[in-house]
Write a structure and sequence with these properties.
It is a single chain. The chain is an alpha/beta fold. It has a single domain, classed as 3-Layer(aba) Sandwich (Glycerol-3-phosphate (1)-acyltransferase). The protein contains eleven helices and nine strands. The protein has a seven-stranded mixed beta sheet with strand order 1-2-9-8-3-7-4, with helices on both faces. Strands 5-6 form a two-stranded parallel ribbon. It is globular.
Length: about 300
C-alpha cells in the first residue's frame, strides 16, 4: 500500500545564531518545558495514588495524557525555533489517536525519542517506553516517567540469573502488569527491538548479521503481544535514518540536525503468534524469532536504500 510522502523544512528562526548559543537556548527551553509540566503531572499522579479507585483512574489518566501531549508539543515548539531540519517523512497519515498500537523502531541516538514524539504526538496515543530500572533516579524525569506509568525493567544478565534464579521472570511480570494498565486507555507501546543504541563497536562485538542494525530481541514484543494482542490495531514499524550520521544529543541541541528520514509501515498483528507461550514453548520462541528476523531483513534493506538515495 502506497503512503503519502511529506518533505518539509523546519525553519529554525534562531538557527542563524552561533551553535553554542543555539544549544544554550534549546537547553533552557527544554528545561523550562520540563519544570512547567512535570509538577502538574505529579499533582494528578499523586491524587490517583491517594484514591486508588478504578473510576478515579479512568478520570485522571486522560488528564495525565493531555499534560504529556502538551509537554511534547512544547518540545516540538523549541525544536522548530532552533532546528533548521529537512524532514522526509512517509506513512504517518491515517493513524488513529483513539486506538492501540505496538510501535517498533531502530535505535541510534537519544534524538530518536524526540523525533518519534514530534511526529506521532496527537496522531496516535502517547508512546509508553519500557525503561531501565536505574532511570527512575534521573532527577525530575524519573518522577515524570513514574507519573505516566512507564514500566521500569530490571534487566539482568544470564550470568546473574543463573546465580539468582528467583529473579527470572520478574521483567515478564512487570511487562504483564504494565500491559494490564495500558489496556484501560488507548496507548502506544514503544519497543526498541535492538534493546540499545546502535554503534559500530556494538555491531562488531555482536557480529550482527545485519549491515545497519543490531540483533533484535523478540522477548519484549512477544510479551506485549501476548498481553494485549487483541487490543492493538496494528504494529507500526518505524525506520529512522540520519543521512549525515546519527546526532549526539548535545549536537542536536546546537541545531545541527540537518536531515532526517522517517518511514512508517503499518503491519498486521501476527495472530498466529499472539497467544503463544514465548518463554515456555521453544517452537513459539523460534517462530517469533523468525518473524522478527524477516522484519529486520526488510528494515536493513530499507535503510541501505534510503542512505544510498539520500
Amino acid at each position: 500500500m502506497a503512503h503519502a510522502r511529506c518533505t518539509a523544512l523546519t525553519y529554525g528562526m534562531l538557527n542563524f545564531l552561533p551553535s553554542p548559543l543555539v544549544g544554550l537556548i534549546a537547553a533552557l527551553l527544554l528545561a523550562l518545558n520540563v519544570f512547567f509540566w512535570v509538577p502538574l503531572l505529579l499533582i494528578f499522579a499523586l491524587l490517583k495514588l491517594i484514591i486508588p479507585l478504578h473510576r478515579m483512574r479512568l478520570l485522571i489518566d486522560p488528564i495525565l495524557l493531555h499534560i504529556a501531549e502538551s509537554w511534547i508539543a512544547g518540545n516540538s515548539g523549541w525544536m522548530r525555533l532552533t532546528q533548521r531540519t529537512i524532514w522526509d517523512v512517509q506513512g504517518i497519515d491515517g493513524l488513529n489517536h483513539r486506538s492501540w498500537y505496538l510501535v517498533n523502531c531502530n535505535h541510534q541516538s537519544w534524538v530518536d525519542i524526540l523525533v518519534l514524539q514530534h511526529l506521532f504526538n496527537r496522531r496516535i496515543p502517547l508512546l509508553k517506553f519500557f525503561l531501565k530500572q536505574q532511570l527512575i533516579w534521573v532527577p525530575v524525569m524519573g518522577l515524570a516517567w513514574w507519573a505516566l506509568e512507564f514500566p521500569f525493567m530490571r534487566r539482568h544478565s544470564e550470568e546473574f540469573l543463573k546465580k539468582h534464579p528467583e529473579m527470572r521472570g520478574k521483567d515478564q511480570a512487570t511487562t504483564r502488569k504494565a500491559c494490564e494498565k495500558f489496556a484501560l486507555i488507548p496507548t502506544s507501546v514503544m519497543n526498541f527491538l535492538e534493546g540499545t543504541r546502535f554503534t559500530p563497536a556494538k555491531h562488531l562485538r555482536q557480529k550482527s548479521p545485519y549491515q545497519h542494525l543490531l540483533k533484535p530481541k523478540a522477548g519484549g514484543m512477544a510479551l506485549a503481544l501476548n498481553a494485549m494482542g487483541d487490543k492493538f490495531q496494528a504494529i507500526l514499524d518505524v525506520t529512522i535514518v540520519y543521512p549525515d550520521g546519527a546526532p549526539q544529543f548535545t549536537e542536536f541541541l546546537k541545531g545541527r540536525l540537518k536531515r532526517v528520514i522517517v518511514r512508517v509501515r503499518s503491519l498486521a498483528v501476527p495472530q498466529h503468534l499472539v497467544q503463544g507461550d514465548y518463554a515456555g514453548d521453544p517452537a513459539v520462541r523460534e517462530a517469533y524469532q523468525q518473524w522478527v528476523h524477516r522484519l529486520w531483513l526488510d528494515k536493513d534493506a530499507q535503510i541501505a536504500t534510503l542512505i544510498a538515495s539520500a
